[in-house]
Batch of 2 targets.
Target 1
Amino acid sequence: MLIKTYGGVVKKILFLLLVFFLVPWYAYGLRVTALAINNDTPDKPFVTIHLDSPQDLKVENIDSETFVVHFPVQTQWSQKKSDIFGGLIKSFTYVPYGDGTGDLVFKVSDTLKLDQFGLLKNQNFGISFQRALQPEKVIFENPLVINNIRVGQKGGNTRVVLDMNRVVDFVLKENPTGTKIILIPNEKPQWKPKMSIDQPVGRFKKYTVYDNGNETSIELSVVTDTKVLQIFLVDQKTPNPKLVLDLGSDPGIQILDTQTINKDAIHEKEGIFTEDLTAAKEAAEGQKGLVKKMDIISQGDDTILRLESDSKKEYKVVENTYLNQVVIHLPKTDWKDVMVPKKKGGLIQDYTVDQSDPVETKLVLSVQKGTSVIGKKVFSSEGTTPRFIIYLNQNATKTPEWLVEETTEKTSYRDRDLEAIESTRLTHRGGISPYMSVGEGFYVGVQLDQLATQTSSHSTMNGTTSTRQLSGDNFGGGGHAYLGYGLVQGRFYEGLELRAGGYGVEEKTSYTTTAGNIYNSTSAINFSWDASLRLGGYISPTTLLYGRIGAAATNFSYDEQSTTGGAFIFPGIYSANSRTGFVFGVGVESALTDQLSLRLEGTQINYQPFQYNSSTGLIKKDRNILNQVSLGVSYKPSPMAGPSLESEFEDSIQTGFYFGFDTGIGNMMNVRELDGKGSIKYKGQSGSTEPLWGIFTGYSYNIGRFFLSGEFQGNLNSIQIQETFVSTGPVTTETYSNKLKNVWALTARPGYIFNHGTMGYGRLGLMGGSLVHKASFSSSTSRQFTSGPNSTTYVWGVRAGGGLEVFMNPNVSLRADYTIDYVPHLVFKDPTVGGVEEKVSIINNQFKIGLAYTLD
C-alpha cells in the first residue's frame, strides 16, 4: 500500500474522538453530587441534597425514626463516603430498585419531626427538621392496677376478662397461626390477680405475664387458629372497668356498641400485622390494596419481593420453614391484571397463586432452604405508587436497619424476644450510592496485548526502476505494566499514565528468484513505552469510558540474509531504536472489587517515517502503524470510595430483543504464498488498517448473573490491501489487491455480570463475506509477484472475540467489542500461465465501540 499522508492520520484521530464525544451523556438522568447535613442549630438540623438539575422530590415520614426521599428513574450518586453526619440525624442509606428508581432513607432521633422540604434558590433540594416538643406525661395519682384475670364460656365462645382500676390503652398482637395473643398496656401496671388459671377453659390454655423492665405484657396461649372475635370495654365510668375479649374460630374482630367502648383503646402497633379491624373495614369500604405489579430483585445476598398496589397496605406474611414457603395474604385479586416478572430470581425458586379462598388471594413463594423474611415495609407518599417490600435472606439474624421487624409467626414471645421484636436491627449492606473512584488516585496494573501492524514500505534498488511498495504486517501478542494517577471532577475523569513492555511478534518474508537466489527478511517489534493522558467520564456508577492521547517510543529490528548481492526487502541487519509515534485510543474500565478494576482498550500508534540508505544503493522509506487491543487489570492501594459491589446484578442488565450500531478500527492481514513461473516463490504477510462502521441485532436473556445472546453483526464498509512490485530485466509492473466486503457474522455471546450494569462476554460463531481479488501486470511472462485473473470469491470463516458491555440506563448500553475473523486456505490459480498459483489466508481484526438499545 502507498504510504499514508499525515492528513489521513488526522482524519482517523478526529473520527475516533468524534465517536467518543458523541456518547449520549444524557443517559445519566438526575445526579446527586453531594449530601450535606447542617447541625449548626442542634435542634433544627438541615439537609441539602446537591443536584445537577432542579428536581422536586417527595419526602415521606415512615415512622417516628424514619424519613424516606423518593428519587426518579436513573438517579446516579457521586456523593463521597467521607461526607459526615451526626447529631439528631443518625444515618442515611440510598436503596436502588430494579426499575431505576431509588429511596434515600434517613434514620433520625425520635425527637425530630419534619419541618419543610422543597427546591432551594440554588436549585438544590432541602429538608429541614425540628426537635418536637416532648409531650407532658400524664401522671395519675392512682397507678394502673390489674386486679384479676377471669376466663369462662360465653355463647359457644371463650371469654377472657381483665379487671382494672381505670381505663387504659392496650396494644393487641396475634401471631398468624392463632396460638398466641399478646396484650400490652401503655402503662406499666401493678399485677395483682388473686389466683392463676392452671386449667384450660374452651380455647384458652394458660397465660403468662412478662416484665422486661420497660413494659409489662400478658401472653395468652390458645388453641391453634383461635381468633379474637370481639374486644370491648365495659363499666368504663366505674371504679372497676373491664377489658373483655371473646375468642373463637371465626375470623374478624368486631367493635360492639360505640357508646360503651373507647375507640382508641385497641389499636395496632406500627409494623406488626394484626387481624383486628381490617376485615370489618374492608367489608364496609370494599377491597383496597389490590396488587398491580410484582417485581423480584436480587440485591447482594438479599432477594426483594416488591408489590405495587392501588393503596397503602401492609399484607400478612406467613412463613412455612418445613415446606420452604413464604405466603403473602392479599385482597381477592384477578391475577391477570397483575404485571409479573418473566423469570424468578435470587432465593425465590418459583411462585404460585392460590385462589381457593373466596375472600383472599394467596401468593405462595417457593424459596431456597433456610430462607427467612428479614424485613418488610410499606412505602407510600403523595404522587407515588404504594409499594410493599419483603426482604428475604438466608441469614435469619440480619435485619436491614430501615425496615421493620420480621413476621411474628416465628417469634416465641418470651421475655427477651418481646424486646428483640422492637430492637433487633443490623446495618443494611445493599444498594448503590455514589460513583466509584475508578482510576482516581494512584494505581498500578498489567495488561495483555494483541498486536496487528501495517508497515508501508517503499524501496528503490540501485537507482533503477526496480521498486517495491509493500504493506508488511506483524501479528501476535505482548504485554505491558503501567502506573498512573487520576482525578475525578464530577462525573468527568482526567489522568496521566505511563506504560512499558514488549512484543513477541515477527514478520517473515521469503523470496526465491528464477536464478535460485534466496532472500529471507525478518522484522520484529521489541521494547516499547508510552506516556499519555486519559480523558473520560462515568457511563455508569462503576464504569468509565475514556479516550487516550500521548506519545510512544518503540524499538524495531530488521534482519535480511541473501545468497547474492542486493536485497529484496531490507539490506543486512538494522535496528531502529526508540522510534517515536503518536498514540490515541479509546477504552472502557469498570470496577471488579473495591480495589481492582478491569479495562478493555483499543490503541493505535502512528510512528514517524524513516529513510535508510544502504551501501548497495538500496533506498528504503518505511512507516509503521501499530494497532493493539489490551485487556488490563488495575490495582488501587486505597479502596475506591463508592457503592457496595453486593448490589442488584441480574436486574441491572436488560434482556430481550436489541439492536445498535458500532464504529472503530479494522486491521486485515493476508498470509500469502505464491508459486510463480519457473522456480519463483514468495511467502509473506501484509496488512491494511481502515475505519469501520457496522450494525448489529440480537436477542438476550440471563440466568442469575450468567448472560447469553445470539447476535447478527454486519459491516457497512470494506477494507482493502494493495501492493505494487516493479522489477527490471525486462521492466515489469505488477499490482495486486484483496478487498474484503459485505462482512457479516452470526455468533453466540455468553457473558457474566460482574458489577452493577456491567458484564464481560466472549464471542464465537460463523462469519462470511466477499473477497475481491485483483491482479494487474505489464507482462504476463515476466511477472514474479502476482497471479491472475481478477475474481470474487465468497468466503466463510470463524469469528471469535470478547468485550465489555455497560448499561447506562435501563435500555441503552455501550460496548467495547473486539473480534478476530479467520478465513483459511483460499486458492487463486492463473489459467493463462501454467503452474502459477497463490494461496491466501485472511485474518481480520476489529475493535469497535458500539451503542445498543434493548426493547424490553
Target 2
Amino acid sequence: MRPNYYSLFSVLLLAAISFAYMPKAIFSAPPEPVGAYLNGIFPDRRPAVGGSWELEDVLPGQTFYGPNRIIPFPGTEDVLLLGLDGELWRINFDNQFSDRVLDISESTFALSDAGTVGIVLHPRFGDPTAPDKQLAFIYYRTKPDAQVWDEIGYNVLSKFSWDPVNEVFDPASEEILFRQYDRYTWHNGGGMFFDEEGLLYISIGDEGADFYQDVSTQRLDGGFFSGILRIDVDNDPTRSHPIIRQPLANDDPPAGWPGTFSQGYSIPNDNPWLSPDGEHLEEFFALGLRSPHSMIQDEVTGEIWVADVGGGHREEISKVEKGDNLQWPWLEGTRPYNDNVHPDVYIGNSKGPYAEYERGTGGACIIGGSVYHGTEFASLRGKYLFADYMKNRLMAIDSDAEDGEGEIEILIDNLSGSHPTMPDGPGVTGVFPQADGSIIITVIGNRFTATPGKLYRLRRAGIVPDPPALLSEIGAFTDLQSLTPVPGMIPYQTTSQLYSDNAVKDRWMIIPNDGTYDSPSETVNFNRSDDWDFPPGTVFIKNFALNTRLGEPNQSRMLETRFFIIGEDQSYGLSYHWNEEGTEAYLAANSDFQEFEVFDEEGQLAYVQRWDYPSRGECMSCHTSAANFVLGVETHQLNSDFYYPELGREVNQLAHLDDLGVFDQSLGDLDQLPRAAAIDDEQADLGLRIRSYLDANCASCHRPGGVSGVNMDLRFNTPLFLSNIINAPNMSNASNQDGVIVKPGFHQHSQLWIRDASLEETRMPPIGRNLVDEYYVDKLAE
C-alpha cells in the first residue's frame, strides 16, 4: 500500500504549527503571589522624618529657566522672579499669572556658577512722588560674547528703569555702577538688600579658585572680591562722599575688552575702612567671604545673615556686623582650610560662624533663605530657613541661639523626587518666606541641558507612618540568620557592582503579582539600552555584610538591610541597622556611622573601617529621578548568569525574568543585547570594564538631567565621544588648575582618576565611600 504523503505532510504541518504556538518551555518556578508594597507593609509614599512637610507646584504647567531670586513687587500682591539667564518675571500666584518684564539674556553669561544672580528694587520703588527712583539693581555675569564658554568675564552691578507705560524694565536704560574683571566664573555671590537708611549691600565672593586666593581675599587695595560692599546709590552728600579709589583687576583682560571701574554712587561716611588718601577701597562693609550666594537682613531684628559656601570641609552661616572679617581663606567655619594659618594681624574683627555643618554627608553648597516671621507655620517662627543645593535638603535653625550652639533641623531631607513635576537634575536655589506666611522654594533644572526649573510652595503633609521598626516584622525573610527570602522574592546580581567599601551584598526584587505577571500593574516595561520602568509597589532589597577577617569569607558582620520602594508619585529608601549579634535589624531615620576592626589572615589588626549609614534623604542622592530611581537593574547589568537555588543551576538572569513573564515584551536573542563586564574580569576588554564600572558607580548622577554643574554622561550605552570627559574642563573643581576630567595618557592629571583615588572631601562618589577601590583605580590609570 502506498503511503499517503499528502496526509503525512498535513500531520507534520499541523504539528509544526501547534509547536510554534505552544507556550515556551518553563524552566523557572512559577512566581508566588505577593501584594504591592510587600503586601502593604510599606506605605505608598515616603514616611515623614523630623516633621511632616511636602511641596506643591505653585504654578502648574509653568516653568522658568534658572529661577534664583524672588522679591516683592511693591504696591501689588505680585512678586518678581529672577532667572539665571537674565530674564525677570512678574508673577501672581493666586491668578497663576506670569509676565516677563526684563530680558538681558543676550548679555548674560549663565553657565557654570554664573548668571544673573542678584536683584533688589530701590526702597522708594512704587512711590509716585519719586519717579526717578523706579529702579531695579541687578548683579550679573557678562563678557563681550556672552554666549561663548570661557572662565573669564565681568561681574557687573547695573540699574534699570521701570517703564510705567509698557510695565517693563527697559534694557536700554541700563547704567553700570561697577564692572569688575574676574578670571573665574565661580563664587560670584549676589545677595542684595537696602537697609533702613536706604544704603545698598551686596555680597561678593573671591575670584573663584584657590590659586587666586592670595590676590582676591583679605585685602582692600585690589578689586571687589571676598566681602560685603555698602554703597549709597542716592549720592546723598549729607551721609556719603564721592568715590576716591577705583577697583583693580587682578590681571589684564584680553585685548579689546573693557576695563574695570566704578561710578554713579557714593561711599557712606560711616563705612568701616575709610581711606581719604585713596590707599584702599572704601566700599567694604565686611571681609573674608568665599562664595556668599545668599545674604538677607532680618526685617524684624535688622540682623544681617550670610550663607557662605565652603571649600571642602564646612558650610557656614554667619551673622555679620560692620567691620567683621569672616576669616576666609584661613578658616571655613571653624576648621582651617588647606592648612592655612589665621594670622595675628588682620583687617577688621575676626568672627566665627553662627552655625556650620559638615560637607559631604551634610551637604556641599549652602543656600540661605530668611528668618521666618509668618503666622502660617507656628513651629517655624523665628527660625532661619536655608537649604543645600547639592543635597536638596531644606533646613531650619533658631535665629536667637548662641553662636555655634544652634541645632539644625531637617524639614525635608531631599527634595529630589518629592514632587512629580520636579525637574531633571534639580538644585534648590532659594527659600523665600512671603508676606502671606507661605514659603516659596526655587528649584533649577540641569543647566547644561537647559532644563527649566520650577517654583514650589512648602506645606504641611498628612502624616505617613513608618513601617515596622524591626526587620523581623517586615515579613521579607522567613529566617534572619540565613536570610531565607519569602516566596515571591526574586534574587539577582549586577555584573558590575557598585563599590561599597568591600561589603558583601545580596539583592532581591519583589514585583507585585497575583501568581502571574499578566497585567500592566504586574509587568516591567523593558528597555534595551535605557532604564526599565517598574510598577508601583515594587520593592528592592539589598543586604550588606562586612568581612572582618581578610581571606575568610565566613567571618562577616551584618551591617544593614536597605529597602527601596517604588511609589505611585514618590519613591523612597529605608535602612534597617543590624545589632552586633546579627540577630535583628532596626529601622533608622537619620544618617549614622560605625567603625569596625578588620583583621588580617594572622589575626592582626589590619585597619579600622568606617561604615556610613545613609539617611532616608541620602538614599535619594543616588536614586535620582534622572536615573528613574532604580539603580543597577538594567539590561546590560543582568545579561549574565546567576545561580538560582530554586532551580539548582545557573541561568541567564534576563532569560529567567523573561521566562517568568516579568517583562511587557519577549526579549529574543540575548546575545544581541548589551552586556556589562565586571572590573576584575580579565577576559573582558579593559575599556568595557571601566565603562561598566563608571556606569554602576557614577552614572546615577553623571547623566543628562543628573547633577547640576557637570556635563558628563557616564551611562554604559553612551559612546565615549559623547560622554564629555576627554579633555573636558572639570568645572566643579575650580580649585585645581588641572581642570581636565580625563587627560589622555596622564592619569595623575585627570580629575576622574584624582577624585576616584582620593579620600578627601572632593572624592567621588562624595558619599558612601571611605576606602579607595585600589584595583579599580589601577585599572583606570591603565
